[in-house]
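In line with agreed milestones, the collection of sequences with tokenised folds has grown. One record among many is set out beneath this paragraph:
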Amino acid sequence: MSRVARFEQPGEILKRALAYPYAAPERSFLYVDAIVLELSPAELEQVETSEPAREPLLAYGANAAPEALARKLATLPAVPLPAVRAELLDFDVVYSAHISPYGAVPATLHESRGAAVPVHVLYPTAEQRALLAATEPNYELTQLTGIELRFGPEVAPLLGDAAPAAVDAFLSRHGWLSI
């Protein structure tokens, strides 16, 4: 089944570029049908037991923002996407060394000893992951290993020390902007 891209008008493109970076919730959430809901213990349990397994995907920048998720996941509106708030240690979110197709200077991760940056760990279905990947032509899906993630206080009691030591993330093919 092919999907047809919706072409944005010039005014929409400029508005989108100026809005970047988009606001991400400061807590864990469940994204479904362009609505942000509270992530309940029952949804967390479903993530842990779903078949096929939902593989964790690190989200920072646009992929952690419901506004961007609404655009990227528009063809799967009713499929819930759990997003667990976390802190990634020894990394920072910096500008990428490229300009996005819509004119924003997007983000990427950069190792930074002693830093701690807020992120979300998404648990997409295979179809959601494919849609997200299709929107990332300037990024490579890379597995980060040996990392330290700490889940937010609202989910830590439920997940314990279950933060993954390895997680996939989209990293800029162009590296970080260095001036």
Observations:
- The helical segments are 10-19, 41-49, 66-72, 126-134, 156-159.
- The first helix runs from residue 10 to 19.
- The first strand starts at residue 29 and ends at 32.
- Residues 96 and 176 are 4 Å apart (CA to CA).
